[in-house]
Amino acid sequence: NHVSHVNDRLMATVSKERKSAAILLLTDKYDTSPLYASLSYQYRKNFVFGESRAKNLALGKNFHVKKYPMLVCLAGQKIIYEGAMNADALTKWLDSLEEKFGVAEKKNKKRR
């Protein structure tokens, strides 16, 4: 993972697949978390998801990482997520991005 890969791969895919934005996870872990994998699947219709693992220093410097993990939305501008790293908070953030980009759909409530 290198800074140029973000543009060459991630943002090119956003354009090619007509997605709203790219969501990039910068992490100090070597494995993809089940939470991030689940969110990337759930929101795959509107976003392209990428990941930079194991404290990639070049990307960390480019995105001014102060603490891992860090989520960034790339859509012409950088929108840095600053909330809790749990499913509810991340879902709210991604839902708000869908609203911002005008691609939100009504979601079916889960039956209990």
Descriptive notes:
Helices cover 38% and strands 18% of the residues. It is built from four helices and four strands. It has helices spanning 3-16, 34-42, 57-62, 87-100, and strands at residues 21-26, 47-52, 70-74, 78-80. A four-stranded mixed β-sheet has the order 2-1-3-4, with helices on one face. The N and C termini lie far apart (42 Å). The relative contact order is 0.20.
Give the averaged pLDDT, no decimals: 87
Describe the biggest sheet?
4 strands, mixed
**What sort of overall outline do the alpha carbons produce when their principal axes are compared?**
globular
Determine the strand fraction and express it as a percent band. Answer: 15-25%
Summarize the helix and strand pattern as letters: HEHEHEEH
Task: Give the structural class.
Answer: alpha+beta
Tally of helical runs: 4
Radius of gyration: 14 Å
What is this structure, in a nutshell?
The protein is an alpha+beta fold. The chain has helices at residues 3-16, 34-42, 57-62, 87-100; strands at 21-26, 47-52, 70-74, 78-80.
